[in-house]
Amino acid sequence: MMLMKRAMDWCCGLTVLLAAAGAAGEAIPALQKQGTAQQLIVDGKPYLVLGGELKNSSASNLPYLEKLWPQLKSTGLNTLLAPVEWDQLEQTEGKFDFTILDGLLRQARSNDTRLVLLWFGAWKNSMSTYVPAWVKKDHVRFPRARNRAGEPQDILTPFGQATLDADRKAFAAMMRHLKQVDPQRTVLMVQVENEIGMLPEVRDSSPLANAALARPVPTPLLSYLAAHRATLHPYVRSLWEARGSRTAGSWTEVLGDSIEAQEVFQAWYYAVFANGLAEAGKAEYELPMFVNVALNRPGRKPGEYPSAGPLPHLFDVWKAAGPAIDILAIDTYFPNFIHWAKQFKRPDNPLFIPEANRAGLPEAGANAFYMIGELDAIGFSPFAIENITDAKTDNLPAAYAVLRQLAPLILAAQGRNRMRGFKADVSYDGVVNTGNVRSHLGGYVLDVSFANQWGTTETAEFQERGGLVIQTGNDEFIVAGKGITVVFSDPSGSMTGVGIEQAAEGTFVDGRWREGRWLNGDETHQGRHIRLPAGDGFTIQKVRLYRYR
Ligand code: DGJ
Predict the structure, then answer these.
(1) Which residues have C-beta atoms less than 6 Å from ligand 1?
(2) Which of 53, 56, 386 to mutate to test the pocket of ligand 1 (most atoms within 8 A of CB)?
(3) φ, ψ for residue 121 (rounded to 5)?
(4) Rounded to two decimals, what is the model's pTM?
(5) pLDDT tens by residue, 143-156
(6) Residue ranges per structural domain of the chain
(7) What angle do CA 194, 200, 204 make, to 5 degrees?
């Protein structure tokens, strides 16, 4: 028991201090570095978003939303991601109606849930369906994008100054209002637009876009390229270097006119637009802001996927144009999410997953453990959270229940090389890598298997399994998750053995470890490994190791 207490002290001293500071006032939520991680600080202490995103229309009607809360709460989420629609906020130009936003805040507060708002403005999934009617119907003031043949698309061009001005004005009005009505900090972050990207062609070919293409490349992009030469993504670097790394010139002179160069051009102007909103919003109320992105399928050309969004191959462009955008966030709908998520965690970009595929998938819980444990994610949030109608049979609530218990330990460990996350890798085509995963933590080698230790394992079983390990002291670890077996060994080889001094199951209740059974026999294969059963949902074990020679 004493040892368990020491483990918490070792890990959580910082959290206790921060909690005390938070009690003094409601600081505005902000991002803050901790080692190699960036964390979301809420009420003065790190916060883990265990979230769920509503379907697109669920927050557009308050009585409709009200009925969903019991179901939403049953998932164990602490944060709801909910759209705010420009068309509802400003039905008449210049007259802002905050009824729905205020109702959303009220409902969230009475359900003890925080919010992340999604601003559905000029673009939602490439299209422009959420703009008010007075924007939709005025194609002269609010010009449309055009395809190569010059045909208008029902998509606003990012080159329309009046469009940017109007969208900014509405977004700023929302942020101004929020500052006034949300001293409780119910809202933690705001997403600017939704899955920006050009379809069905690589770029807008409207007269305004063509005129911009003929102008010089803006200086901030050129300066960024020069300053980040060593780390530029090959997609952008190869275009730039192929033309002699020019520090001035038109888009064609600097980057060429290939489809890739056109995507970079389009990305710059989308990012400038989104940054314009973020800047205007932050000038009113400085909450963290992010954009989200639809990923591209292998082998597809820009325009076959939503071109020019904040995809990893265009991060340089989005970072250069978007200093007011704090996070380029990933929407993961492909099986190979590990491949993608790793690219979104960078020193200049914390990992946040506003849409972690659709809620209700059997792998959701394990995915959350991996993203949070291995990649220090700020948070995890499947889309269409209303899909979870039976919390008892869905795996996400069980995963969230354990992650909630562990949140103080997780948040204390993030970015400090004290935590690892585990999940079987899956290819884009859905082929599961059934091999062990090897990792290092706290002076030990960890070999993690997702297979049943006896008998065979179905592919579907591999998908649902995953976990994390947190170092809580010298030779002490928390192992949590589902269906994983962990063998600890010494990095120097077999002449130094590693034994299990004690393994115990348990739970954290109000931050205190409540110990369950001691696991010396079959459960640890008589001391050979730590095993989190697949059949019991997500569980926690405390483990203390020793070495022998
Ligand atoms: C991604 C979008 O961002 C969401 O708003 C929603 O349209 C989903 N796709 C639907 O799968």
Answers:
(1) 56, 125, 194-195, 331, 355, 383
(2) 56
(3) -110, -120
(4) 0.95
(5) 999 999 999 999 99
(6) 28-214+263-419, 421-548
(7) 80
